[in-house]
């Protein structure tokens, strides 16, 4: 892939070079533009300049854009359930068991490797040919996830996630019956003082011994019981923040951990066999980074999750039938 050259003529009275280019090259973030300027890839009237250089009407600016270098992760033909795709974003239904981003212990076989293979039109993020991961789902959490194909889409989505403009709805099977059946969980969430590999929740008005290392970050989850299933409950959970392990930590914090969550469930089973933590990102809604239109995507509860729910329903039905027969024979 060859160098791409863009030639511009300033058409405004005066502006910083990086600001002017950010307004004319919508596919690049301002940080990426500044990096190109500092690397000498931008000339003003034939000479390299600094990002803060003032350009005036009639100034000739040339940008030599190097092709995106291959990202360290390699493309891999991993099957993907693509819910939506265009030149800006790709939305997938991530299966449980798939790690989102390469990390120690997971150098390959990740969602990023799959997207590198699937998306042949990646514009590049930060100068690398890679997808822009805006948010993550835990390895054993399934559901809807969006990735950006270029810098501008990444910046637009990141601003929405940071500003709380993204609607995220999850389904969770938990132990017990929350009381009240609908409520808010608002705490600080941060690294546990007892185990750095775990997160912990701490009341906003801290009292007693600290559970969170450092100040933590405010986290808000809103839950609603949609069905009672014997020893368990099926919940709808909406999160207004996106902290690491937030839903798992919050539900454990109120005494109703996610079924199958060995990290925060204290190895509870209560006769409910689960193949993994039964948490699913069911809905995701945001404004499209190019059009600004509100878009929403849904993914059905996967088969392994549904099988546990169906088994609990059947068990409850059997118990009710036995109680009914006993009543009529007494």
Count of discrete structural domains: 3
Could you describe the largest sheet, including whether it forms a barrel? 11 strands, mixed
Indicate the proportion of strand residues.
25-35%
Instruction: Note the run of SSEs as H and E.
Output: EEHHEEEEEEEHEEEHEEEEEHEEH
Structural class of the secondary structure composition?
A: alpha+beta
Quick one: CATH class of the largest domain?
Answer: Alpha Beta
| CATH-derived architecture of the largest domain | 2-Layer Sandwich
Instruction: Compute the separation of the termini in Å.
Output: 83 Å
Q: Report the C-alpha radius of gyration, rounded.
A: 25 Å
Number of helices: 6
State the CATH superfamily name of the largest domain: Pseudouridine synthase
Q: Into which percent range does the helicity of residues fall?
A: 10-25%
CATH topology of the largest domain: Pseudouridine synthase
- Taken from the alpha-carbon principal axes, the silhouette is elongated
- Low-pLDDT segments: none
What oligomeric state do the depicted chains represent?
A: single chain
Number of strands: 19
How confident overall, as mean pLDDT? Answer: 89
Textual characterization of the structure:
- The protein is built from 6 helices and 19 strands.
- The protein has 330 residues and is of the alpha+beta class.
- Strands 8, 9, 11, 12, 13, 14, 15, 16, 17, 18 and 19 form an 11-stranded mixed β-sheet that branches. Strands 1-6-3-4 form a 4-stranded antiparallel β-sheet. It has a two-stranded antiparallel sheet with strand order 2-5.
- Helix 1 crosses helix 2.
- The chain starts with a strand and ends with a helix.
